TrEMBL record:
It comes from the Bacteria. PROSITE patterns: HTH_LACI_2. Residues 8-62 form the HTH lacI-type domain. Keywords: DNA-binding, Transcription, Transcription regulation. GO terms for molecular function: DNA binding. Pfam families: LacI, Peripla_BP_3. This is LacI family DNA-binding transcriptional regulator. InterPro entries: HTH_LacI, LacI/GalR-like_sensor, Lambda_DNA-bd_dom_sf, Peripla_BP_I.
Length: 336
């Protein structure tokens, strides 16, 4: 017996192997409750006939899809820009899932309708767990999925009071190290280009900058961008207008720092002689700016790996740490 298109069925495999349909199903789904010699015979017939299990039927038996969703709450043009944060996260997640023989499902949502679509998809039994990265505001999606008993891991600490587990980097420590480096270099008027204030990374990096300056009796000089190159260029023009004497700027992302370097060059300011610049991320581009960018390195790929490891543990019914916080490192280059 074959299915439509000529594919062999479970019944055909069972008939040739001389066992029941249920036995073939148990072997295909990895059940240990079948004698070894029967397992060998069934697998041999499966290979000979080219039998491919029906995933929908298999899911009904195992209650697993062997798929994990990675949700990026950004517009597609941001995800696929030359900001290497998202490719790094995807690469780290995919490494772990591939080793675990799981399928990565990439989902993007930048609207209420997109969130609703993802909620329907995830709660419809299509995935075994969900990873959510780049959250804006008090995003209700993670808590909604968790209430539906879907394993959820957040990339970055969620805004507000929540018990959802997450993987993040030491935002405050990384910024403090950057500001300490600028102060040690004799910089007196240190500005910042902050990230968007509806994201934890933007909020925490700005707060850490202000705390570091408060401890050194310096005043804050702030402009806000949205983690894009263009916003960094615009914010740098605003800072120069606000304080023409500034001699350093901490920028909350490398992409914004690249834009800031362009504005400084257009304004005739030498880097680092007139203005020192430090970014955050250490994406590959930071090595090739003019001059090469001093930056706070966050382990982006490792963050993706740890997120995937945590969600697989949750999906297996295991306990996970509420928070995993990875260390950052200041990488010195010519911009300081």
């Amino acid at each position: 017996m074959t299915a439509a298109g000529g594919r062999p069925t479970l019944e055909a495999v069972a008939r040739r192997a001389g066992v029941s349909r249920a036995t073939v199903s148990r072997v295909v789904n990895g059940s240990p409750k079948v004698a070894e010699e029967i397992q060998v015979r069934v697998r041999q017939v499966v290979e000979e006939m080219g039998y491919v299990p029906n995933q929908a039927a298999r899911t009904l038996v195992t209650q697993r899809t062997d798929s994990i969703a990675l949700v990026l709450t950004e517009q597609a043009n941001r995800v696929f820009s030359d900001d290497q944060y998202f490719p790094g996260i995807i690469f780290g997640v995919s490494q772990v899932l591939e080793d675990a023989d799981k399928q990565l499902v990439l989902l993007m949502a930048h609207s209420d309708a997109g969130h609703e679509r993802i909620e329907r998809y995830a709660t419809g039994g299509h995935v075994d767990g969900v990873l959510i990265a780049s959250m804006h505001g008090a995003d209700p999606l993670p808590a909604t999925l968790a209430r539906r008993r879907i394993p959820v891991i957040c990339g970055g600490r969620p805004l507000g009071r929540t018990n959802l587990p997450y993987v993040d980097v030491d935002q405050a420590g990384g910024v403090a190290t950057a500001i300490e480096h600028l102060l040690a270099g004799g910089r007196r008027r240190i500005a910042t280009i902050a990230g968007p204030q509806d994201m934890v990374a933007g909020i925490e990096r700005l707060a850490a900058y202000r705390n570091a300056l408060r401890d050194s009796d310096r005043r804050s000089i702030v402009a806000v961008g949205d983690f894009t190159r263009g916003s960094g260029a615009v914010a740098m023009r605003q800072l120069l207008a606000d304080d023409p004497q500034l001699d350093a700027v901490f920028v909350a992302s490398d992409l914004m720092a690249h834009g800031a370097l362009r504005t400084l060059r257009e304004a005739g300011r030498r880097v680092p002689e007139d203005v020192a610049v430090i970014g955050f991320d250490d994406v590959e581009m930071a090595q090739f700016t003019d001059p090469p960018l001093t930056t706070v390195r966050q382990p982006i790929v490792e963050m993706g790996r740890r997120m995937a490891e945590q969600v697989l543990r949750l999906a297996a019914g295991e306990q996970v740490d509420h928070s995993v916080v990875l260390a950052t490192e200041l990488v010195l280059r010519d911009s300081t």
